[in-house]
Amino acid sequence: MVVFIIALPLTANAAGKAKTIDELAKMYDSSGCKGCHADIYKQWENSHHARPLMGVKGGLMLTPVAKAKGTAFSPDDPKKATMKNYPCFKCHLPQALASAEDSVAVELTEALLAGDKGKVAKLQITCIVCHSDKSILHKRELGEPEKGVLYSSKAVDSHPDKTFTKVKKSAVMKDSVYCGQCHGLGPNFDNEQVFQCANLYGSYLHNYVSSGGSQSCQDCHMQKGDHLIAPNWNDQKASEELLKKAISLDVQTVGYEWLKKAGTYVPKVVVNTKITTTAGHRIPDG
Question: Is the pLDDT of residue 129 over 50?
């Protein structure tokens, strides 16, 4: 869901797979983007994409998965954890599935059990994840993302970076289907253990688009190229303001006394409530 070109990271994705959290974080380090895209980088830093495993208010959302018998996916022994124990990586850390060894899952499990927020926070959905790994949906036709190339809403022939020297136009980056890769359709049937997950894109398709809605996720959540991609649930005031714009509540009441029988009056009230939303999806969702 990115509309502006993001500056390239100083470190490229290495050929081999990461064996540690630090190695994986370094592979996808996008701090080099900050030099040219300071405002966008700052917006991203405050976004949930910058803390995909932290939940809201600094919580460690995957701790139940790390605990033995905490979920159907939980490893019996932290030392035996593998990528298969973390189906949430599909959206919350997609680069791990492609670029990390099972030893990263072991280290993450131990960090979650120890409450090591500093280590867990190193794992982020960075500029490279969105502008490279997730930028092509039709890989049979278009192939995998090219090495040394970033993808954005427009092409740039010469890009001032040692690693990513070119920016190509992505066919989907302005479309809601791009966001739908993670903010999905509902149950994950491609796992050994089916589980319900985000169905925001499904709600958008089946309720908003089917009713004539024409705006994309980016139109509402990335106005003027804002890479905060609101809401930021850690910012309660801003979240409340955003919800107020999308949801209206109309309550009408009428009170009366019901003459149940002679000399006996029973107080009654009728409440009519109407909730209207202009959002392109159900609220709440993810």
Answer: yes
pLDDT of 179 reads 97
How confident is the model over 85-94, as pLDDT tens digits? Answer: 999 999 999 9
Which DSSP helix (H) or strand (E) runs through 93?
Answer: none
150 strand-pairing partners: 167
Mean pLDDT of the region 116-144:
97
| 3-24 tens-digit pLDDT | 444 444 444 444 599 999 999 9
Spatial distance between the Cα atoms of 278 and 119, rounded to a whole number of angstroms: 39
| CA atoms 220, 225, 231, 235: torsion sign | negative
How many CB atoms sit inside 10 A of residue 276's CB?
Answer: 9
Sign of CA dihedral 52, 56, 62, 63: positive
Give yes or no for a contact between 216 and 174, defined as CB atoms under 8 angstroms apart: yes
Structural Rg of the chain based on CA atoms: 23
The domain segmentation of the chain, as residue ranges, is 21-238, 242-277
**Which residues make Cβ contacts (< 8 Å) with residue 280, sequence separation at least 6?**
204, 208, 213, 215, 217, 220
The alpha helices in the chain, defined as continuous H runs, are: 21-27, 38-45, 63-66, 89-92, 94-99, 102-114, 117-120, 127-128, 139-142, 176-180, 200-203, 217-221, 236-246
DSSP 87: T
Distance between CA 191 and CA 257 in Å, rounded? 59
- What pLDDT digit, counting tens, does each position of 194-243 carry? 999 989 999 999 999 999 999 999 999 999 999 999 999 999 999 999 99
Rounded to an integer, what distance in angstroms lies between the CA atom of residue 40 and that of residue 33? 9
Alpha carbons 154 and 168: distance in angstroms, whole number: 7
